[in-house]
Design a protein that fits this description.
The complex is a heterodimer of chains A (387) and B (271). Chain A is α/β, with parallel strands linked by helices and 387 residues long. Chain A has 2 domains: 4-158, Rossmann fold (3-Layer(aba) Sandwich); 162-386, Rossmann fold (3-Layer(aba) Sandwich), CATH 3.40.50.11900. Chain A has helices at 4-11, 14-27, 42-47, 63-66, 76-87, 91-95, 106-115, 133-154, 160-181, 193-202, 209-228, 253-261, 288-297, 308-320, 335-350, 368-386; strands at 32-35, 51-54, 98-102, 121-124, 240-245, 265-270, 325-331, 356-361. In chain A, helix 9 (160-181) packs parallel to helix 11 (209-228). The longest helix of chain A has 22 residues, at 133-154. The two termini of chain A are 35 Å apart. The model of chain A has no long low-confidence stretch (mean pLDDT 95). Chain B folds into 2 domains: 1-90 and 237-271, Nucleotidyltransferase, domain 5; 92-234, Nucleotidyltransferase, domain 5, CATH 3.30.420.40. In chain B, 40% of the residues lie in helices and 20% in strands. Chain B has helices at 34-49, 78-89, 129-138, 143-150, 163-175, 180-200, 218-228, 241-257, and strands at residues 2-8, 12-18, 22-29, 56-62, 74-75, 95-99, 104-109, 115-120, 208-211, 232-233. Chain B has a 5-stranded mixed beta sheet. Chain B has a 5-stranded mixed beta sheet with strand order 8-7-6-9-10. In chain B, strand 1 (2-8) and strand 2 form a beta hairpin. In chain B, 51% of the residues are buried. Classes of the chains: A alpha/beta (387), B alpha/beta (271). Chain A binds chain B through residues 355, 360, 366-367, 369-370, 373-374, 376-377, 380-381, 384, and chain B through 64, 76-80, 103, 114-118, 120, 122-123.
Chain lengths: 387, 271
């Protein structure tokens, strides 16, 4: 394997590098289904033979055009995603034969209505709780509806057999990524948090799953080799940070960069690109639709009320990764994560007895100066505890 | 052996020379070049105290311009410095409210004066010295005139926290014939409410201290005290608390290096 650094650099361009791969696949007759959220059941799409791809907008450029239709005071992820769609600047959106949305939050739900004007959109009605039996039966029905829509819209067939295969494959992917990010339990961790994040982020743009799983396995063994030979890529004794909150990536990588430039090491990502989808697997023995409904509805997103799963998850991750401080990254106007910061702060401070900080940000770079001060002050607070 | 702390704020640059106690301090406007301001503050400080540059063993910078002062030994955030500075000025302080030119913050401290929690205002001028400055100019005065104008007046409520919106609100109030005095008091009221909201987001443990440029306003202090029903400790050195914290940090590091006990953080100025 080439150098770890070079390898991670190539993975961090996975989104851009995937454009031409997808073009080829489209030419060979493959169908593409775009998604905006972890709640879209990957396995159902993959079982049809279509390629699932994430369409979440992570950059600032499409926001201005999106604001022709959408209010300014709306989450940047929604605006960026919509902006990419209407300006035709995202190849993945362009190649998508069907777009799957969910009623996760009010902003997305209403945005999908407009998106439906320019492309076929299937919106799944996500229950906003997971503590009643009917939540699971309703979600199971929604997964069936998605299956039927894909079959009808794309002329593909989803058999139980193919679905079971796709469940097994996705579980394997989850396991291998988990093995990868769990390397950060080591002290010091073998990779910087930003590097770990970039590898995790690339997973949505790898269209050959078998190949991807092998690549990550190779990467894991290369990292282990380097670590046992004392080739450290991080400094020991730095505060170990857990990131929680909204989906991040692209423009919001700034938060990760600032944390690590300010003296912290990110060891865990309790968010959409990190642990959120990967800690719980789909039961391979049960009825596939039931198993999928259970796994997906248990995702600890703030759109669930109550959202006890997030507390349980955080509690375990803080212990397992020996976390010194928690940073909650919240996108502006993301009401559910924003409201939840108070609960998370209370829990982290009072039950886990470690410092907590929330950082509210958007896709602009204008808040870097103040963010740097806040994050550095947080590290100054943590350093006496860790050194 | 001396240490220097320089707090390069958006409006004023404060510098302190220290040897376990405050020897001398200067406050100059930052102007357009934070780096030049920090150099000038240091020179003036040396001139004023008659201490040679060679006798300064540590220079620590803080404040928004801290990254630009390349001559410094270390840069520390203003949160840590204001916390340490306020604690040095009065070691019973557990909560610090700092209102500077471009940001405001509430800081919680433990019994050792270490920061345990903090919150800062959003990335805008609401509730900061800049807000006061813009409003004072509208009333044809400077920040220091607001207190005199507001003393004894009945407050005219200013509903907008945003500097830009508050500006047009004040203009229309003036056009409707509201007195300058009532508007001045309303402006200070509005800053006080903002500060109390900020304080409400940390555990407001007593003793509370008020630092930063805005702490020079006695009316503002009084308004905040009324709202939180507690007294604020305002040291005569409150405006330079950040620079004191920086100088103290450097001093303690020097002491540690020379293998002696750290400076007793005695109370030199509590009234």
């Amino acid at each position: 394997m080439e150098s770890i650094k070079g390898f991670i650099e190539s993975l961090s361009r996975a989104r851009e590098n995937g454009f031409s791969e997808m073009e080829q696949l489209k030419k060979s007759g493959k169908k593409v289904v775009g998604t905006y959220c972890l709640f879209a059941p990957y396995e159902v799409i993959a079982a049809s033979g279509a390629l699932p791809v994430s369409l979440c907008g992570m950059k600032e450029e499409p926001i201005a055009p999106a604001e022709k239709h959408l209010p300014r005071n709306l989450c940047p992820l929604i605006k960026s995603s919509y902006g990419y769609a209407i300006t035709g600047t995202c190849p993945y959106f362009f190649y998508s034969d069907l777009v799957v949305g969910e009623t996760t939050c009010d902003g997305k739900k209403k945005m999908f209505e407009y998106l439906g004007r320019i492309t076929p959109v299937h919106v799944m009605r996500l229950p906003d709780s997971n503590n009643r039996e009917e939540d699971y039966t309703n979600w199971r029905k929604e997964i069936r509806y998605l299956k039927e829509r894909i079959e009808k819209e794309l002329g593909l067939e989803i058999t139980d057999e193919k679905l079971n295969d796709s469940i097994k494959e996705k579980n394997e992917e989850r396991r291998v990524f988990r093995e990868f990010y769990e390397l950060s339990k080591l002290d010091p961790p073998p990779l910087a948090g930003l590097e770990v994040f970039r590898v995790l982020f690339s997973s949505g743009y790898a269209f050959d799953k078998r190949k991807q799983i092998e690549t990550i396995r190779d990467l894991i063994s290369a990292i282990k080799d380097a670590y046992t030979n004392n080739k450290l890529r991080t400094q020991p004794g730095r505060p170990r940070i857990l990131i929680t909150g909204c989906p991040i990536g692209g423009a919001t990588e700034k938060v990760l960069r600032i944390i690590e430039e300010s003296g912290g090491t990110i060891v865990c990502f309790e968010n959409c690109g990190g642990t959120r989808d990967r800690e719980e697997l789909v039961d391979e023995q049960a009825d596939p639709y039931e198993a999928l409904a259970k796994k997906y509805l248990n995702i600890a997103c703030s759109c669930m009320s109550p959202n006890e799963n997030r507390i349980t998850m955080l509690s375990r991750l803080i212990d397992e990764y020996r976390v010194d401080g928690v940073i909650d990254v919240v996108l502006q106007a993301c009401h559910t994560y924003n409201v939840e910061t108070y609960r998370i702060k209370e829990f982290v401070r009072q039950e886990k007895h470690i410092p907590y900080m929330a950082v509210e940000t958007d896709y602009s770079q204008g808040d870097e100066g103040q963010m740097r001060t806040r994050i550095r002050a947080f590290m100054e607070m943590l350093e006496p505890r860790t050194t | 052996m001396y240490s220097v702390g320089i707090d390069i704020g958006s409006v004023a640059t404060k510098a302190v020379i220290f040897n376990g106690g405050i020897i001398e301090s200067v406050i100059i406007p930052t102007g357009w070049s934070p780096r030049d301001a920090s150099c000038e503050a240091l020179e003036r400080l040396l001139g004023k105290s008659g201490i040679e540059r060679e006798s300064i063993q540590s220079i620590i910078v803080t404040g928004y311009g801290r990254a630009l002062a390349d001559f410094a030994d270390q840069a520390i955030t203003e949160i840590a410095c204001h916390g340490r500075g306020a604690f040095f000025l009065n070691n019973s302080v557990r909560t610090v409210l700092d209102i500077g030119g471009q940001d405001s913050k509430a800081i919680s401290l433990d019994e050792q004066g270490s920061v345990t929690d903090f919150v800062m205002n959003d990335k805008c001028a609401a509730g900061t010295g800049r807000f006061l400055e813009v409003m004072a100019h509208l009333l044809g005065g400077e920040v220091q005139d607001l207190d005199r104008m507001a003393a004894g007046a009945e407050a005219q409520t200013i509903t907008n926290m945003c500097t830009v919106f508050a500006e047009s609100e004040v203009i229309s109030l003036l056009a409707r014939g509201a007195s300058k005095e009532s508007i001045a008091r309303g402006i200070l009221e509005s800053i006080a409410s903002r500060a109390v909201t900020l304080l409400g987001r940390v555990t407001m443990e007593q003793q509370l201290a008020f630092t930063g440029g805005a702490s020079r306003s006695a009316v503002l202090q009084e308004l905040i005290e009324q709202k939180i029903r507690a007294k604020l400790f305002v040291s005569p050195h409150a405006q330079i608390a950040g620079a004191v914290g920086a100088a103290l940090t450097g001093w303690n590091a020097l002491l540690r290096k020379s293998m002696t006990a750290p400076a007793r953080e005695h109370n030199v100025s509590a009234h």
